[in-house]
Amino acid sequence: QVHVVESGGGLVQPGGSLRLSCAAFGFTLDYKAIGWFRQAPGKEREAVSCISGTDGSTHYADSVKGRFTISRDNAETAVSMQMNSLKPEDTAVYYCAVGSRCTYLDYEYDYWGQGTRVTVSS
Fold first, then answer.
1. Phi, psi dihedrals of residue 89, rounded to the nearest 5°
2. Which of 4, 9, 67, 78 sits CB 3.0–4.6 Å from 116 for a disulfide?
3. Apex 81 CA angle, 28 and 99, nearest 5
């Protein structure tokens, strides 16, 4: 069965770090764009980062540039996002999405995980 699973969320203090992982089952991630989105309570889902499947280029929302890093752990099945210097405003459910190209438009992605919750609080 084709599906995507996120892991690595949790509770962390401001200034701390977390590493989120996105794993694919039933298909491979090579040549596919992997995007991370997040949805904070009471807010719309927003694009956070993306790694291209064609040239490996990475893209970040302004709010996370310099703090978050997306990378392919395994070209075929796993992508991670290292999150450093976390802030309370990073608190959200984070989703991994698989598509054909990097875009901030969530409807252009084909597969979505169930999400992993990140809470940044002291």
1. -75, -5
2. 9
3. 40
Please tell me whether residue 90 adopts helix, strand or coil conformation: helix
Opening angle at CA 41, ends 38 and 43, nearest 5: 70
**Residue 114 corresponds to which amino acid?**
Q
Tokens coding 67: 């703090």
* pLDDT score of 75 more than 70: no
CA distance 17 to 19: 7
Q: In this model, does residue 30 exceed pLDDT 90?
A: no
Q: What is the largest CA-CA distance in the chain?
A: 40
Hey, is 115 helix, strand or coil? Answer: coil
